[in-house]
Amino acid sequence: MRDAVLSGLGDHGYPGLTIEYVAEHSGVHKTTLYRRWGGLEGLVADALDMAGEDTWTPPDTGTLEGDLRALAREVVDAFDDPTKAAAPTAFIAAAFQSPRAADALCAFYTERFTRCEAVIARAVARGEAAADTDAAALVRAVSAPLMLRLFVTREPIDTALADQSAAAALAATRAGAFDRPSTPKNR
Amino acid sequence: MRDAVLSGLGDHGYPGLTIEYVAEHSGVHKTTLYRRWGGLEGLVADALDMAGEDTWTPPDTGTLEGDLRALAREVVDAFDDPTKAAAPTAFIAAAFQSPRAADALCAFYTERFTRCEAVIARAVARGEAAADTDAAALVRAVSAPLMLRLFVTREPIDTALADQSAAAALAATRAGAFDRPSTPKNR
User: Cβ contact (<8 Å) for A169 and B174?
Assistant: First the structure.
């Protein structure tokens, strides 16, 4: 069923996906799909839950600079390839129309960015970042300029932009812009 | 016609908008709408063109820090209010399904961010930023972490996040992370 949802989203996007498509490509009867998943929204949310169950881990290059750049470049690589980009793009589109898809997408990205925070924990251990760095904000700042262009402003992205985004996030970290405000200190 | 498209997008989003709705609310006959705009995609693209014809100008607080913070807070203010947020959100959603809407959205944001670059020009004139600052990248970096959460990760945003985003962009600017690579210099 999940493969059918993913291939349907890849081929037709959302809302081009239909229960009929999923039934035909999964061999599961329509009435069963409705009974178990409650319809398309439930199927999409379930497929997104599955997408979050992979074993992806963030890059570990030995430096914060290298890790942030590698993270940013992974975004470019993932969305430069139309085949790889189709399903994630369809999930992001589905969230505009389905509150259940939006909740599932939020859970997916929250968990994904939590994995990315390992990059910051290692940087703190190496003395490259302050212990009170807002890791959640920092890892989102790296991909945000790329995601903005991909899904909002519809502008092209490339490796140079990824590197610039990583460099900006690194500079902001070094300047203390991602320090949590709860710990006042002299800078 | 454009008011009907905007109110329809606000009420029903995209693809909830129909030619019938626009015809009914604009008093323009369906066949005329099809003949002049070629259908919904053309109507949405035209409404977006109109949205870009406002007289909005970026904040001018007297400092780069103040201007970037005000820009970021405007994003929070605009999308915190469901009434104000409905049409822009529907345009962003429409771009996932309509290449014409995507082109119109890209043109809208390109022009909008070009207006924002006045903030950087003033900062350069005051000596607050290097003359070769990549103003286009900088102004996008300010709103990107907010737009990421609004339209991709579906996470909440608030004024504190706006201020953090502005502070990060400012720190990156001061550190030279937005300097154009074409002009090597010692830092």
Answer: no
CA distances from B103 to A96, A177, B46, B100, B112 (A): 19, 35, 11, 5, 14
pLDDT (tens digit, 9 = 90+) per residue, B152-184?
999 999 999 999 999 999 999 999 999 997 655
* Model pLDDT for residues B111-136, shown as the tens digit of each residue: 999 999 999 999 999 999 999 999 99
- HSE-CB at B84 with a 13 A cutoff on CA atoms is 8
Counted across chains A and B, CB pairs separated by less than 8 A come out at 141
Whether the CB of B15 is below 8 Å from some CB of chain A: the reply is: yes
Residue A161 belongs to some domain of the structure: yes
Residue A184's pLDDT is: 53
Task: Give me A116's structure tokens.
Answer: 């990315």
CA distances to A46, B96, B153 from A42, rounded to whole Å, are 6, 21, 18
Question: ipTM score of the complex?
Answer: 0.92
Residues B85 and B139 placed together within one structural domain of the fold: yes
DSSP code of B53? T
Nearest to B41 by CA among B92, B87, B1, B95: B95
Q: What domain range includes position B25?
A: 2-51
